[in-house]
Amino acid sequence: MRYHLIMGNQAYSSWSLRGWLLLKAFGIEFDYEVVPLYVPGYERFLADNYPANTVPALQAFDDPEKSTIWDSLAMAEFLHEQHPEAGIWPTDPHARAAARSLCAEMHSSYMALRSTMPMNVRRVYQSIRPDAVTRRDVDRIEDLWSWAASRWGGAGPYLFGENFCAVDAFYAPVASRFHTYSVPLKPTSQRYADALLNYPAVVEFYEAGMRESWVLDFNEFDQE
């Protein structure tokens, strides 16, 4: 099967980082293109790739069939079905259920964090602090990280041990936000965030985002 991943701006698109990691981190071969968000031509992308109406969108070619999978959680499940040996989810059923729950919560929650601290790999702000609602999102995320790592992480750097899995792909953009806005974290949370940001596939995505010339004004802030 051949895969083609369509992503948004790598400087800003947290969802695209998840899609990228669900392939890159597990050794699944793919090619990709970047479609700039909210510029002329983006509507054409949506029309050409219906029923996908956002990025990332994964095209899977199994001649003569072509499938379009949109939504990063659906991509994780589809790729796990196609590549069960890749380690996208933990092998232990209880750990796997917990990992799926963590991903689902990331997928549907933390609206305050998303809106007040959008992903931007090109900036590091020192003076922006989370408001009370955003701080509750941060606290909830730290609590979940601590819970999962204490139960399944062992001595590994990731939430479920030595091996990077889907849940780490889903929380890598959170680590990116924490870094961009210099969010104070507990030491154990900071070590995990650092492990995510130093993961080679994350570094590669970051470097590509830094090279981009597109700018989304609503993701940029004047504070330094």
Task: Give a quick precis of the structure.
The chain is 50% helix and 10% strand.
CATH class of the largest domain: Mainly Alpha
- CA-atom Rg in angstroms: 17 Å
Residues in helices, as a percent range: 40-55%
CATH architecture of the largest domain: Up-down Bundle
Runs in which pLDDT lies below 50 for 5 or more consecutive residues are: none
- Quickly count the domains: 2
User: Tell me, what's the shape?
Assistant: globular
Number of strands: 4
**Order of strands, widest sheet:** 2-1-3-4
Q: Please indicate the percent range of residues in DSSP E strands (runs of 2 or more).
A: 5-15%
Mean pLDDT across residues: 94
- What structural class do helix, strand and pairing data support? alpha+beta
Instruction: Classify the fold: give the CATH topology of the largest domain.
Output: Glutathione S-transferase Yfyf (Class Pi), Chain A, domain 2
Order of helices and strands: EHEHEEHHHHHHH
Number of helices: 9
Rounded to the nearest angstrom, the distance between the terminal CA atoms is 46 Å
| Largest beta-sheet characterization | 4 strands, mixed
